[in-house]
Amino acid sequence: MADERIQELALQFRRAQAEGERDAFVQLVDLLQDRFYRIAYRVVGDPDTALDVAQDAFVKIHDRIDRWDGDSRFTSWAYRVVTNLAIDGLRRRKREMKAWEGRAAEQPDHVEDASQDTVEREERAQLVATVKAAIDELPPGQRAIVALRHYEGFTLKEIAEIRGCALGTVKSTLHQAFRSLRKTLGTETLSRAGQVA
Question: Domain 1-107 carries which CATH code?
Answer without folding.
Answer: 1.10.1740.10
